[in-house]
Amino acid sequence: MIGGFQNVFKIPELKKRILFTIGLLAVYRVGVHVPTPGIDAVALASFFARAQGTLLGLFDMFSGGALTRLSVFALGIMPYISASIILQLLTVVVPHLERLSKEGEEGHKKITQYTRYGTVLLSVIQSFGISVGLESMTSPGGAAVVLHPGWSFRLMTVITLTAGTSFIMWLGEQITERGIGNGISLIIFAGIVARMPSAIGNTFRLISTGEMGIFAILIMIVLMISVVAFIIYVEQGQRRIPVQYAKRVIGRKMYGGQSTHLPLRINTSGVIPPIFASSIIMFPATIASFMKVPWMQSVASAMRPGNAAYELLYVGFIFFFCYFYTAVTFNPVDVADNMKKNGGYIPGIRPGKRTSDYIDKVLTRITLGGAIYVSAVCVLPSILITKFNVPFYFGGTALLIVVQVAMDTIAQMESHMISRHYEGFLKKGGGGRKSPF
Protein backbone atom coordinates (compact mmCIF):
# COMPACT_ATOMS: atom_id res chain seq x y z
CA MET A 1 0.00 0.00 0.00
CA ILE A 2 2.86 2.40 0.85
CA GLY A 3 4.39 1.73 -2.55
CA GLY A 4 1.02 2.40 -4.17
CA PHE A 5 0.74 5.80 -2.51
CA GLN A 6 4.29 6.63 -3.62
CA ASN A 7 3.29 5.88 -7.21
CA VAL A 8 0.27 8.20 -7.04
CA PHE A 9 2.26 11.37 -7.65
CA LYS A 10 4.24 9.73 -10.46
CA ILE A 11 1.10 9.80 -12.64
CA PRO A 12 0.57 13.41 -13.87
CA GLU A 13 -3.18 13.12 -14.46
CA LEU A 14 -3.86 11.54 -11.05
CA LYS A 15 -1.59 14.07 -9.33
CA LYS A 16 -3.49 16.91 -11.00
CA ARG A 17 -6.84 15.47 -9.90
CA ILE A 18 -5.71 15.05 -6.29
CA LEU A 19 -4.30 18.59 -6.07
CA PHE A 20 -7.49 19.96 -7.66
CA THR A 21 -9.60 18.13 -5.07
CA ILE A 22 -7.47 19.38 -2.18
CA GLY A 23 -7.68 22.94 -3.51
CA LEU A 24 -11.49 22.94 -3.72
CA LEU A 25 -11.81 21.37 -0.28
CA ALA A 26 -9.57 24.16 1.04
CA VAL A 27 -11.91 26.72 -0.56
CA TYR A 28 -14.83 25.03 1.19
CA ARG A 29 -13.09 25.16 4.58
CA VAL A 30 -12.31 28.86 4.11
CA GLY A 31 -15.97 29.56 3.36
CA VAL A 32 -17.01 27.83 6.58
CA HIS A 33 -15.36 30.69 8.50
CA VAL A 34 -17.02 33.53 6.53
CA PRO A 35 -19.90 34.73 8.75
CA THR A 36 -23.35 35.85 7.67
CA PRO A 37 -23.88 39.58 8.46
CA GLY A 38 -26.18 40.72 11.24
CA ILE A 39 -25.33 38.00 13.81
CA ASP A 40 -23.89 38.27 17.33
CA ALA A 41 -21.32 35.46 17.11
CA VAL A 42 -20.80 35.18 20.88
CA ALA A 43 -24.53 34.88 21.63
CA LEU A 44 -24.94 32.34 18.82
CA ALA A 45 -22.08 30.18 20.13
CA SER A 46 -23.64 30.26 23.61
CA PHE A 47 -26.98 29.12 22.19
CA PHE A 48 -25.46 26.24 20.25
CA ALA A 49 -23.65 25.06 23.37
CA ARG A 50 -27.12 23.95 24.53
CA ALA A 51 -28.05 22.46 21.14
CA GLN A 52 -25.95 19.32 21.39
CA GLY A 53 -28.10 16.23 20.93
CA THR A 54 -30.65 18.11 18.81
CA LEU A 55 -31.26 18.24 15.08
CA LEU A 56 -29.22 21.45 14.97
CA GLY A 57 -26.24 19.58 16.39
CA LEU A 58 -26.60 16.91 13.70
CA PHE A 59 -26.74 19.51 10.92
CA ASP A 60 -23.75 21.29 12.44
CA MET A 61 -21.77 18.05 12.25
CA PHE A 62 -22.52 17.66 8.52
CA SER A 63 -21.73 21.33 7.84
CA GLY A 64 -18.34 21.06 9.55
CA GLY A 65 -19.22 23.62 12.26
CA ALA A 66 -20.57 26.19 9.75
CA LEU A 67 -24.02 26.26 11.38
CA THR A 68 -22.54 27.13 14.79
CA ARG A 69 -20.89 30.19 13.25
CA LEU A 70 -23.82 30.78 10.85
CA SER A 71 -21.36 31.19 8.02
CA VAL A 72 -22.31 31.49 4.35
CA PHE A 73 -22.09 27.66 4.21
CA ALA A 74 -24.34 27.18 7.26
CA LEU A 75 -26.82 24.95 5.42
CA GLY A 76 -23.97 22.77 4.21
CA ILE A 77 -24.74 20.14 1.62
CA MET A 78 -27.80 18.76 3.45
CA PRO A 79 -30.35 20.41 1.07
CA TYR A 80 -28.66 18.65 -1.85
CA ILE A 81 -28.69 15.32 -0.03
CA SER A 82 -32.36 15.79 0.92
CA ALA A 83 -33.28 16.69 -2.68
CA SER A 84 -31.39 13.64 -3.99
CA ILE A 85 -33.18 11.31 -1.56
CA ILE A 86 -36.58 12.84 -2.41
CA LEU A 87 -35.91 12.36 -6.15
CA GLN A 88 -34.90 8.74 -5.52
CA LEU A 89 -38.10 8.08 -3.62
CA LEU A 90 -40.21 9.84 -6.25
CA THR A 91 -38.60 7.72 -8.98
CA VAL A 92 -40.50 4.73 -7.58
CA VAL A 93 -43.94 6.39 -7.64
CA VAL A 94 -43.73 8.93 -10.52
CA PRO A 95 -43.77 7.22 -13.96
CA HIS A 96 -42.01 10.13 -15.71
CA LEU A 97 -39.05 9.99 -13.32
CA GLU A 98 -38.95 6.21 -13.57
CA ARG A 99 -38.69 6.47 -17.38
CA LEU A 100 -35.92 9.05 -17.05
CA SER A 101 -33.95 6.78 -14.71
CA LYS A 102 -34.00 4.06 -17.37
CA GLU A 103 -32.96 6.31 -20.29
CA GLY A 104 -29.26 6.16 -19.54
CA GLU A 105 -26.98 9.18 -19.36
CA GLU A 106 -29.47 11.70 -20.79
CA GLY A 107 -32.13 10.66 -18.29
CA HIS A 108 -29.68 10.91 -15.38
CA LYS A 109 -28.69 14.42 -16.52
CA LYS A 110 -32.34 15.46 -16.40
CA ILE A 111 -32.77 13.99 -12.91
CA THR A 112 -29.60 15.81 -11.81
CA GLN A 113 -31.09 19.05 -13.09
CA TYR A 114 -34.27 18.42 -11.10
CA THR A 115 -32.09 17.73 -8.06
CA ARG A 116 -30.40 21.12 -8.44
CA TYR A 117 -33.76 22.89 -8.63
CA GLY A 118 -34.91 20.98 -5.56
CA THR A 119 -31.72 21.94 -3.72
CA VAL A 120 -32.31 25.65 -4.34
CA LEU A 121 -35.96 25.36 -3.29
CA LEU A 122 -35.10 23.51 -0.06
CA SER A 123 -32.30 25.99 0.65
CA VAL A 124 -34.71 28.93 0.36
CA ILE A 125 -37.21 27.26 2.70
CA GLN A 126 -34.60 26.20 5.26
CA SER A 127 -32.74 29.51 5.23
CA PHE A 128 -35.99 31.44 5.75
CA GLY A 129 -36.88 29.16 8.65
CA ILE A 130 -33.42 29.67 10.16
CA SER A 131 -33.66 33.45 9.80
CA VAL A 132 -37.06 33.53 11.54
CA GLY A 133 -35.83 31.15 14.25
CA LEU A 134 -32.69 33.18 14.87
CA GLU A 135 -34.74 36.27 15.64
CA SER A 136 -36.30 34.47 18.62
CA MET A 137 -33.01 33.02 19.90
CA THR A 138 -31.20 34.38 22.91
CA SER A 139 -28.02 33.31 24.66
CA PRO A 140 -28.16 31.95 28.24
CA GLY A 141 -27.29 35.48 29.39
CA GLY A 142 -30.27 36.96 27.54
CA ALA A 143 -28.39 38.55 24.62
CA ALA A 144 -30.21 38.50 21.27
CA VAL A 145 -28.57 36.48 18.50
CA VAL A 146 -29.80 38.79 15.70
CA LEU A 147 -28.58 42.38 15.98
CA HIS A 148 -31.25 43.98 13.74
CA PRO A 149 -34.25 41.66 13.20
CA GLY A 150 -36.70 42.26 10.41
CA TRP A 151 -37.39 41.48 6.76
CA SER A 152 -34.09 42.95 5.62
CA PHE A 153 -32.22 40.44 7.79
CA ARG A 154 -34.45 37.59 6.62
CA LEU A 155 -34.00 38.41 2.94
CA MET A 156 -30.25 38.82 3.32
CA THR A 157 -29.99 35.49 5.17
CA VAL A 158 -32.05 33.65 2.53
CA ILE A 159 -29.91 35.01 -0.31
CA THR A 160 -26.62 34.37 1.51
CA LEU A 161 -27.33 30.82 2.68
CA THR A 162 -28.96 29.75 -0.60
CA ALA A 163 -26.00 31.08 -2.57
CA GLY A 164 -23.62 29.30 -0.18
CA THR A 165 -25.36 25.94 -0.65
CA SER A 166 -25.46 26.41 -4.43
CA PHE A 167 -21.73 27.13 -4.41
CA ILE A 168 -21.03 24.01 -2.32
CA MET A 169 -23.12 21.96 -4.76
CA TRP A 170 -21.03 23.37 -7.63
CA LEU A 171 -17.82 22.54 -5.74
CA GLY A 172 -18.99 18.97 -5.25
CA GLU A 173 -19.85 18.52 -8.91
CA GLN A 174 -16.49 19.95 -9.97
CA ILE A 175 -14.64 17.57 -7.64
CA THR A 176 -16.61 14.60 -9.01
CA GLU A 177 -15.95 15.61 -12.62
CA ARG A 178 -12.38 16.93 -12.50
CA GLY A 179 -11.05 15.67 -9.19
CA ILE A 180 -10.90 12.32 -7.42
CA GLY A 181 -13.74 10.69 -5.52
CA ASN A 182 -17.36 11.72 -5.01
CA GLY A 183 -17.39 15.49 -4.44
CA ILE A 184 -20.48 15.66 -2.22
CA SER A 185 -19.22 12.85 0.00
CA LEU A 186 -15.76 14.41 0.25
CA ILE A 187 -17.25 17.74 1.36
CA ILE A 188 -19.09 15.98 4.20
CA PHE A 189 -15.91 14.03 4.93
CA ALA A 190 -13.89 17.26 5.17
CA GLY A 191 -16.42 18.81 7.54
CA ILE A 192 -16.34 15.82 9.89
CA VAL A 193 -12.56 15.37 9.84
CA ALA A 194 -12.02 19.11 10.48
CA ARG A 195 -13.46 18.65 13.96
CA MET A 196 -10.97 15.96 14.94
CA PRO A 197 -8.13 18.31 16.04
CA SER A 198 -10.38 20.00 18.62
CA ALA A 199 -11.55 16.59 19.86
CA ILE A 200 -7.94 15.43 20.24
CA GLY A 201 -7.12 18.68 22.03
CA ASN A 202 -9.98 18.11 24.48
CA THR A 203 -8.66 14.61 25.13
CA PHE A 204 -5.18 15.90 26.01
CA ARG A 205 -6.78 18.53 28.23
CA LEU A 206 -8.65 15.84 30.15
CA ILE A 207 -5.41 13.87 30.52
CA SER A 208 -3.56 16.92 31.87
CA THR A 209 -6.32 17.63 34.41
CA GLY A 210 -6.44 13.99 35.50
CA GLU A 211 -10.02 13.37 34.38
CA MET A 212 -8.85 10.57 32.05
CA GLY A 213 -6.00 8.17 32.65
CA ILE A 214 -3.36 6.88 30.26
CA PHE A 215 -4.75 3.35 30.54
CA ALA A 216 -8.22 4.55 29.47
CA ILE A 217 -6.69 6.34 26.49
CA LEU A 218 -4.87 3.18 25.40
CA ILE A 219 -8.08 1.16 25.63
CA MET A 220 -9.89 3.82 23.60
CA ILE A 221 -7.21 3.77 20.87
CA VAL A 222 -7.40 -0.03 20.61
CA LEU A 223 -11.19 0.21 20.45
CA MET A 224 -11.03 2.87 17.73
CA ILE A 225 -8.73 0.75 15.57
CA SER A 226 -10.92 -2.32 16.11
CA VAL A 227 -14.12 -0.46 15.18
CA VAL A 228 -12.58 0.99 12.01
CA ALA A 229 -11.28 -2.46 11.00
CA PHE A 230 -14.71 -3.94 11.68
CA ILE A 231 -16.44 -1.30 9.53
CA ILE A 232 -14.01 -1.86 6.64
CA TYR A 233 -14.51 -5.61 6.90
CA VAL A 234 -18.32 -5.41 6.85
CA GLU A 235 -18.51 -2.69 4.18
CA GLN A 236 -16.53 -4.91 1.82
CA GLY A 237 -18.71 -7.92 2.63
CA GLN A 238 -20.89 -9.32 -0.16
CA ARG A 239 -23.20 -12.23 -0.76
CA ARG A 240 -22.37 -13.42 -4.26
CA ILE A 241 -25.21 -15.22 -6.02
CA PRO A 242 -23.84 -17.34 -8.91
CA VAL A 243 -25.27 -16.48 -12.33
CA GLN A 244 -24.86 -18.60 -15.47
CA TYR A 245 -25.41 -17.20 -18.98
CA ALA A 246 -26.56 -19.57 -21.71
CA LYS A 247 -24.71 -19.80 -25.01
CA ARG A 248 -26.26 -17.96 -27.93
CA VAL A 249 -25.39 -18.22 -31.62
CA ILE A 250 -25.59 -14.95 -33.58
CA GLY A 251 -24.62 -15.40 -37.21
CA ARG A 252 -21.54 -17.57 -37.22
CA LYS A 253 -20.36 -16.55 -33.76
CA MET A 254 -21.27 -17.99 -30.38
CA TYR A 255 -21.78 -15.61 -27.43
CA GLY A 256 -22.31 -16.12 -23.73
CA GLY A 257 -21.79 -19.26 -21.75
CA GLN A 258 -19.77 -17.53 -19.03
CA SER A 259 -20.29 -17.82 -15.29
CA THR A 260 -20.47 -14.71 -13.13
CA HIS A 261 -22.13 -13.60 -9.92
CA LEU A 262 -24.60 -11.05 -8.60
CA PRO A 263 -22.99 -9.17 -5.66
CA LEU A 264 -25.33 -8.14 -2.84
CA ARG A 265 -23.75 -5.85 -0.25
CA ILE A 266 -24.40 -6.45 3.43
CA ASN A 267 -25.01 -2.74 3.98
CA THR A 268 -26.92 -1.88 0.82
CA SER A 269 -28.50 1.28 2.27
CA GLY A 270 -25.20 2.91 3.32
CA VAL A 271 -25.46 5.78 5.82
CA ILE A 272 -29.02 6.83 4.93
CA PRO A 273 -30.75 4.89 7.79
CA PRO A 274 -28.82 6.51 10.68
CA ILE A 275 -29.21 9.98 9.10
CA PHE A 276 -32.98 9.57 8.77
CA ALA A 277 -33.30 7.94 12.20
CA SER A 278 -31.29 10.71 13.91
CA SER A 279 -33.30 13.42 12.17
CA ILE A 280 -36.66 11.99 13.24
CA ILE A 281 -35.71 11.31 16.87
CA MET A 282 -33.94 14.64 17.35
CA PHE A 283 -36.88 16.62 15.96
CA PRO A 284 -38.73 16.88 19.34
CA ALA A 285 -35.56 18.11 21.08
CA THR A 286 -35.08 20.71 18.35
CA ILE A 287 -38.64 22.02 18.66
CA ALA A 288 -38.33 22.07 22.47
CA SER A 289 -35.22 24.26 22.22
CA PHE A 290 -37.41 26.98 20.66
CA MET A 291 -40.63 26.44 22.67
CA LYS A 292 -40.51 26.46 26.48
CA VAL A 293 -43.49 24.13 27.03
CA PRO A 294 -43.15 21.77 30.05
CA TRP A 295 -44.41 18.59 28.40
CA MET A 296 -42.24 19.21 25.33
CA GLN A 297 -39.23 19.73 27.58
CA SER A 298 -39.87 16.35 29.23
CA VAL A 299 -40.21 14.62 25.85
CA ALA A 300 -37.02 16.31 24.62
CA SER A 301 -35.07 15.22 27.70
CA ALA A 302 -36.18 11.61 27.14
CA MET A 303 -35.15 11.79 23.47
CA ARG A 304 -31.49 12.58 24.13
CA PRO A 305 -28.58 10.20 23.44
CA GLY A 306 -27.84 7.92 26.35
CA ASN A 307 -31.43 7.39 27.47
CA ALA A 308 -32.99 3.96 26.99
CA ALA A 309 -36.01 5.34 25.09
CA TYR A 310 -33.74 7.16 22.65
CA GLU A 311 -31.52 4.14 21.99
CA LEU A 312 -34.47 1.75 21.47
CA LEU A 313 -36.20 4.13 19.05
CA TYR A 314 -32.91 4.81 17.30
CA VAL A 315 -32.28 1.11 16.66
CA GLY A 316 -35.91 0.58 15.60
CA PHE A 317 -35.78 3.41 13.06
CA ILE A 318 -32.42 2.17 11.73
CA PHE A 319 -33.91 -1.27 11.08
CA PHE A 320 -36.94 0.26 9.38
CA PHE A 321 -34.95 2.54 7.10
CA CYS A 322 -32.41 -0.19 6.26
CA TYR A 323 -35.20 -2.33 4.83
CA PHE A 324 -37.14 0.62 3.37
CA TYR A 325 -34.21 2.24 1.54
CA THR A 326 -32.94 -1.13 0.29
CA ALA A 327 -36.40 -1.86 -1.13
CA VAL A 328 -36.47 1.53 -2.84
CA THR A 329 -32.99 1.38 -4.40
CA PHE A 330 -32.81 -2.34 -5.30
CA ASN A 331 -35.63 -4.00 -7.24
CA PRO A 332 -35.27 -7.81 -7.48
CA VAL A 333 -37.98 -7.97 -10.19
CA ASP A 334 -36.00 -5.67 -12.52
CA VAL A 335 -32.79 -7.61 -11.84
CA ALA A 336 -34.51 -10.92 -12.61
CA ASP A 337 -36.06 -9.52 -15.81
CA ASN A 338 -32.70 -8.18 -17.03
CA MET A 339 -31.05 -11.52 -16.34
CA LYS A 340 -33.81 -13.33 -18.26
CA LYS A 341 -33.53 -10.97 -21.26
CA ASN A 342 -29.78 -11.57 -21.46
CA GLY A 343 -30.07 -15.33 -21.14
CA GLY A 344 -28.89 -15.46 -17.54
CA TYR A 345 -30.18 -17.66 -14.75
CA ILE A 346 -29.29 -18.73 -11.22
CA PRO A 347 -28.40 -22.46 -11.19
CA GLY A 348 -31.26 -24.43 -9.66
CA ILE A 349 -33.71 -21.49 -9.81
CA ARG A 350 -36.23 -20.99 -12.62
CA PRO A 351 -36.00 -17.63 -14.43
CA GLY A 352 -38.63 -14.99 -13.82
CA LYS A 353 -40.65 -14.79 -10.62
CA ARG A 354 -38.80 -17.64 -8.90
CA THR A 355 -35.52 -15.81 -9.46
CA SER A 356 -36.86 -12.48 -8.13
CA ASP A 357 -38.32 -14.25 -5.08
CA TYR A 358 -34.99 -15.95 -4.40
CA ILE A 359 -33.03 -12.68 -4.72
CA ASP A 360 -35.54 -10.92 -2.45
CA LYS A 361 -35.22 -13.71 0.14
CA VAL A 362 -31.41 -13.50 0.16
CA LEU A 363 -31.50 -9.69 0.26
CA THR A 364 -33.91 -9.72 3.21
CA ARG A 365 -31.60 -11.99 5.20
CA ILE A 366 -28.40 -10.05 4.60
CA THR A 367 -30.18 -6.73 5.24
CA LEU A 368 -30.94 -8.02 8.73
CA GLY A 369 -27.22 -8.46 9.32
CA GLY A 370 -26.54 -5.03 7.84
CA ALA A 371 -29.14 -3.41 10.13
CA ILE A 372 -27.59 -5.06 13.19
CA TYR A 373 -24.15 -3.86 12.11
CA VAL A 374 -25.27 -0.26 11.52
CA SER A 375 -27.16 -0.20 14.84
CA ALA A 376 -24.12 -1.48 16.75
CA VAL A 377 -21.83 1.17 15.25
CA CYS A 378 -24.35 3.98 15.81
CA VAL A 379 -25.13 3.10 19.45
CA LEU A 380 -21.40 2.95 20.27
CA PRO A 381 -20.98 6.74 20.86
CA SER A 382 -23.66 6.85 23.55
CA ILE A 383 -22.05 3.94 25.39
CA LEU A 384 -18.60 5.55 25.25
CA ILE A 385 -19.88 8.92 26.48
CA THR A 386 -22.18 7.70 29.27
CA LYS A 387 -20.07 4.79 30.55
CA PHE A 388 -16.47 5.81 29.81
CA ASN A 389 -16.68 9.63 29.71
CA VAL A 390 -15.18 9.83 26.22
CA PRO A 391 -14.96 13.56 25.35
CA PHE A 392 -16.11 13.27 21.71
CA TYR A 393 -18.40 11.22 19.53
CA PHE A 394 -16.57 8.24 18.06
CA GLY A 395 -18.77 6.06 15.93
CA GLY A 396 -22.21 6.45 14.46
CA THR A 397 -23.03 8.22 11.24
CA ALA A 398 -19.84 10.30 11.19
CA LEU A 399 -17.53 7.30 11.39
CA LEU A 400 -19.50 5.37 8.75
CA ILE A 401 -19.27 8.33 6.38
CA VAL A 402 -15.54 8.84 7.00
CA VAL A 403 -14.65 5.18 6.45
CA GLN A 404 -16.91 4.73 3.41
CA VAL A 405 -15.68 7.90 1.70
CA ALA A 406 -12.05 6.99 2.39
CA MET A 407 -12.57 3.51 0.94
CA ASP A 408 -14.34 4.84 -2.18
CA THR A 409 -11.66 7.48 -2.79
CA ILE A 410 -8.83 4.97 -2.46
CA ALA A 411 -10.68 2.61 -4.83
CA GLN A 412 -10.95 5.38 -7.43
CA MET A 413 -7.26 6.18 -7.06
CA GLU A 414 -6.44 2.52 -7.62
CA SER A 415 -8.64 2.38 -10.73
CA HIS A 416 -6.85 5.43 -12.16
CA MET A 417 -3.48 3.81 -11.49
CA ILE A 418 -4.52 0.52 -13.09
CA SER A 419 -5.95 2.37 -16.10
CA ARG A 420 -2.71 4.34 -16.46
CA HIS A 421 -0.65 1.15 -16.40
CA TYR A 422 -2.87 -0.45 -19.03
CA GLU A 423 -2.44 2.60 -21.29
CA GLY A 424 1.34 2.35 -21.05
CA PHE A 425 1.19 -1.35 -21.89
CA LEU A 426 -0.96 -0.79 -24.99
CA LYS A 427 1.22 2.07 -26.27
CA LYS A 428 4.35 -0.04 -26.03
CA GLY A 429 2.64 -3.02 -27.65
CA GLY A 430 1.17 -0.90 -30.49
CA GLY A 431 4.59 0.40 -31.53
CA GLY A 432 5.85 -3.06 -32.46
CA ARG A 433 8.35 -3.20 -29.61
CA LYS A 434 8.44 -6.08 -27.18
CA SER A 435 6.59 -5.30 -23.96
CA PRO A 436 8.63 -5.65 -20.77
CA PHE A 437 5.55 -7.10 -18.95
Gross geometry: globular
Largest sheet: 3 strands, antiparallel
The count of helical stretches stands at 18
Total domain count: 2
Mean pLDDT comes to: 78
Give the arrangement of secondary structure elements.
Blueprint: H1 2-8, H2 12-32, H3 41-48, H4 55-62, H5 66-69, H6 78-93, H7 95-101, H8 105-135, H9 151-178, H10 183-193, H11 196-209, H12 214-235, E1 238-245, E2 247-250, E3 253-256, E4 259-265, H13 272-290, H14 294-302, H15 308-329, H16 332-341, E5 344-345, H17 353-388, H18 396-430
Antiparallel strand pairs: 1-4, 1-5, 2-3
Helix pairs in contact: 2-9, 2-10, 6-7, 6-8, 7-8, 8-9, 9-10, 10-18, 12-17, 12-18, 13-14, 13-15, 15-17, 16-17, 17-18
Provide structural commentary.
This protein has 437 residues and is mostly helical. It has two domains: 12-194, Preprotein translocase SecY subunit (Orthogonal Bundle), CATH 1.10.3370; 215-394, Orthogonal Bundle (Preprotein translocase SecY subunit), CATH 1.10.3370.10. 70% of the residues lie in helices and 6% in strands. It contains 18 helices and five strands. Strands 4-1-5 form a three-stranded antiparallel beta sheet. A two-stranded antiparallel sheet has the order 2-3. A hairpin with a 2-residue loop joins strand 2 (247-250) and strand 3 (253-256). The longest helix has 36 residues, at 353-388. The two termini are 21 Å apart. The model is unreliable at 422-437 (pLDDT under 50).
Overview in brief:
The protein is built from 18 helices and 5 strands.
List descriptors.
437 residues; mainly alpha; Preprotein translocase SecY subunit; 2 domains; three-stranded antiparallel beta sheet; two-stranded antiparallel ribbon; 18 helices; 5 strands; 70% helix; globular; disordered C terminus
